[in-house]
Amino acid sequence: MLNNQDFTANRSKYLGGSDIGAILGFSKYRTAIDVWLEKTGRVVNEVNNLPVRFGSFAEEFVASEYATQTGCALVHSEDGVAHPRYPFMVGHIDRYVFDGEGTDTDELFNSDGSCIASHLLECKTASPFNQSHWGELGTDEVPMSYLVQCLWYLAITNLERCDVAVLFGNSDFRIYEVYRDKELEDLIINKAATFWSDYVLADTPPPAQCESDYHHLFKKEVTGKSVEADPMVCELTQKLQFLNSEIKSKELEISQIKQTIMGQMGEAELLTYQGQVLATWKSPKQSYRLDNKRLEAEHPELIPQYQTPIQNSRRLVIKELTSK
């Protein structure tokens, strides 16, 4: 039977629908390391920031518009829903959808654990600049992180369809339909189960996938500690130096080209060729910055009240290898 309860108190006790995309490498904002840090209690993510509050605000409008366009009734529940076989799999469903005017019951699940809704709804907002990441409306061509999130919820509720309603800006509203795919679902569950058992429960980090992962894993150095590089890493440090020198030479070339263009433009705002604009050179809107030196000179007593310590990240510096 499905276990319906409040899972919001401690996100480290389960994997949610927003975690699975990161674990599978589909998220632009989080990695598997980020999820592992949260689930092992090493990082506590803020759940009351501006993006979260705006998402909750926009969700209500997107759901209302979906109901208007489809004629379906929607039910919202704050309760998390756990998979009947894998209790670490939890879903917080945006809306349960009922065909027609809805249901008179307060329960969303039968005594055998089956969900009585006809299908599910996920509410999203997106920038108009990201429309190319979405396919034709009515299809399942949504970003992969959202696709696996829908499949995650379908696996938990044992339903066959999850709609995705998305609002681009304030003028383009679309509805997509994601249907259950058992083969892909089994793959997702296997990956999630491996992540939960091999990394979270074992308290062992998954493989790092980017520089930020390494910064998160190894925030502080041990003073005086040294490790001996193996031949491959030694060769890579030399290759990195070579690549950095190439970058510097390209940056110099870029600067010289810019200078030539700027020299021709002079005071002109636009550079054109046969009626087409090749480049612009104009000032941005006026901005303001805090004059720290003046503040410190005129009101030094105020400085300590507004200073906060900053933990700078470690900086990797490659040294030139000298021949012996």
Summarize this structure briefly:
This protein has 324 residues and is an alpha+beta fold. It has helices at 17-23, 32-39, 50-70, 144-157, 182-201, 211-217, 231-265, 292-298, and strands spanning 3-5, 73-75, 80-82, 90-91, 95-98, 119-126, 161-168, 172-179, 270-273, 276-280. Mean pLDDT is 90; it is low at 1-8.
Q: If you had to describe this structure to a student in words, what would you say it looks like?
A:
- The longest helix has 35 residues, at 231-265.
- Strands 2-5-6-7-8 form a 5-stranded mixed β-sheet. A 3-stranded antiparallel β-sheet has the order 1-3-4, covered by helices on one side. Strands 9-10 form a two-stranded antiparallel ribbon.
- 37% of the residues lie in helices and 15% in strands.
- It has 8 helices and 10 strands.
- Helix 1 (17-23) crosses helix 4 and helix 4 (144-157) packs across helix 5.
- Residues 1-8 have low confidence and may be disordered.
- With 324 residues, the protein is of the alpha+beta class.
